[in-house]
From TrEMBL, chains A, B:
InterPro entries cross-referenced by the UniProt entry: Homeodomain-like_sf, HTH-type_TetR-like_transc_reg, HTH_TetR, TetR_C_Proteobacteria
Protein name per Swiss-Prot or TrEMBL: TetR/AcrR family transcriptional regulator
Domain called HTH tetR-type: residue spans: 9-69
Pfam family, one: TetR_N
Keyword tags: DNA-binding
Annotation: DNA-binding region: 32-51
Tree of life domain: Bacteria
UniProt organism field: Aminobacter carboxidus
Amino acid sequence: MTVAKTRQERTRDAILDAAAALFLRNGFLGASMDEIAAVADVSKQTVYAHFHSKEALFLDVVRGLTGVAGDVHQEQVTEPLDDRPIADYLQEFAELQLTIVMTPKLMQLRRLVIGEVERFPELGKALHALGPQRSINRLSRAFAHYRKLGQLEADDLEAAASFFNWLVMGGPVNDAMLLGDAAIMPAEACRGQAAESVRIFLAAFGPRAKHQA
Amino acid sequence: MTVAKTRQERTRDAILDAAAALFLRNGFLGASMDEIAAVADVSKQTVYAHFHSKEALFLDVVRGLTGVAGDVHQEQVTEPLDDRPIADYLQEFAELQLTIVMTPKLMQLRRLVIGEVERFPELGKALHALGPQRSINRLSRAFAHYRKLGQLEADDLEAAASFFNWLVMGGPVNDAMLLGDAAIMPAEACRGQAAESVRIFLAAFGPRAKHQA
DNA sequence: CAAATCAAACTGGACGGTCCAGTCTAGTTT
DNA sequence: AAACTAGACTGGACCGTCCAGTTTGATTTG
């Protein structure tokens, strides 16, 4: 917990913050190094002392944001395995997921990365791995637990996890992608969205789910 | 069905095709008018004779692609209302939706529009209205029919339609967004994805769905 | 303790080279 | 005559570099 930062670190952070704001708003090509320097209140020379090119700065910014997002998720989500019923666990998981992911900053990051997938494919892969894939993996592990307890019936756990994840996130995320931050689901609506997703999922995979031919 | 086109129309189409290819690959800022003219095999002056600015050309291109996509969808999807069971209808709907939507061109259009939502919000709204929203509306109407027949139990038809839509499309679309065209779900996998989505949905909304507290 | 010193970090602005949107002109095709 | 071509040109933005000078903060020295 070193709160003390050297001048170099403070300057670097100022540059990264300014760059993040401008890249998120204007995209890679739409943001200029001059403006980044101006917003960071730093000379352009200093920017290039810390990052040897616009591309390097962009990659650092996006990887930083992606990593932070992944970590917040990692920390917040409670460990799945205890003795409470699967419905409780899924409800909490879905609500947390919605409140953590459906924020302007994360939606802007997602739009930025998607828009630049052609130019920077590895950023897309990274955001996928630390975002949806991580949630699905975590769910899969929880599902293995609940299957042993007889509270869940599924052959392909990862497929089931993916279906649950997109049942919860599909609508909200895709609306936010196309309609902008104003369409981000309000916090009050998360509980209902989560509850209905859980109901649907457990009707198909819950212990008394009727399997049809 | 006028197959004959004037020279003007042919030139205009060549420009639109070239612009579509370059905008889809490089984005709005990444595509240059010089290159568009070159690919269209047309002088730059001619480009400006047809479209008074880069922005106007971009809007025409994206609106054209969005409209075509919406129309293809409109034509292909069979009208919902006849006497066959809901499971059949949903299966066909889901398979069609997957095969029509999960194409490189449409995924590139989606990436382009998402990346430019800040600059051109109305394009995002248009793609939303003619894409997901149109599917959901169509499903809602079918659901009203099936609810009358007692084959479906749901209070909020539009919400149910949205859940079904994202059950089918959520995973594939979001993978394609972040992982690129190589991650587009192969046609063979569509049938299985559709079938499992239908099973899950009907477990929750089908006639013998058990409603839990 | 206070003054002098010193290296690293930063400033501010100029500048070269490139690219690009959009215009203009003079000539060619259909 | 209308549509198009070829290419030069303008004005401006932008990346990345350069440089002479200043600030910062820690260390050394009187």
